[in-house]
Design goal:
Length: 202
């Protein structure tokens, strides 16, 4: 609200945000009924997942998740082209599990639930990182090339990749040193424009 009083438009982007839902609905690639019935409604999802239809429902959910994550990147590039100054917060739950992207952004076939054991979690994680890195670099190029004024950019993770290495996240045993070291290796990247590119307040 403070920035809006200075003429800024504010955006909050996440797989649960109304902005992203509206974006996908306008594209015609978003089935809101499937999303509400099988993915956003915890009771419905829990009930369906207790039946033989669990694999089908889960993969519908991950298809939706892929669309939503890609939509966040697309919206970031669109916002960069706006004439009006903007403040944007984007929460991207990726490369966090589930591992739903190939290195080219395609489906990887049947996906297990969020914390189900994956056959090769390290390989699946690295594959997903490759795709997400491509999307982030593409968005950064758009932010620099399309922004009328050079932007302030903060890329901040909330934890490292320790969970990929831990065989049992819910074990009561103390975490290994390797897990702690990797979990605390947290990405923090900040870009501040040169002073000459920032307009004077006078």
């Amino acid at each position: 609200q403070f920035l809006e009083t200075w003429g800024y438009m504010s955006f909050v982007l996440s797989d649960n945000s109304q902005d992203i839902h509206n974006y996908l609905e306008k594209k015609g690639s978003y089935n809101q009924w499937i999303n509400l019935l099988f993915y956003k409604n915890k009771f419905n999802r829990a009930f369906i997942e207790s039946t033989v239809f669990r694999p089908v429902v889960q993969n519908v959910a991950w298809d939706i998740k892929r669309e939503e994550i890609n939509a966040i990147f697309n919206r970031l590039s669109e916002i960069a082209s706006m004439e009006q100054p903007t403040w944007t917060y984007a929460h991207i739950m990726c490369p966090h599990p589930p591992f739903i992207f190939s290195s080219l952004g395609e489906s990887v076939g049947p996906v297990k639930a969020l914390y189900d054991k994956v056959l090769n979690p390290k390989k699946a994680f690295v594959t997903q990182v490759k795709y997400i890195n491509q999307r982030i670099l593409s968005v950064l190029e758009d932010l620099f090339s399309k922004s009328k004024i050079q932007p302030i950019i903060i890329i901040q993770a909330d934890h490292g990749s320790g969970y990929v290495l831990e065989s049992d996240l819910f074990s009561e045993a103390a975490p290994s040193n390797n897990f702690v070291r990797n979990q605390l290796a947290i990405l923090n990247a900040i870009y501040l424009p040169r002073a000459s590119s920032v307009p004077s307040s006078e």
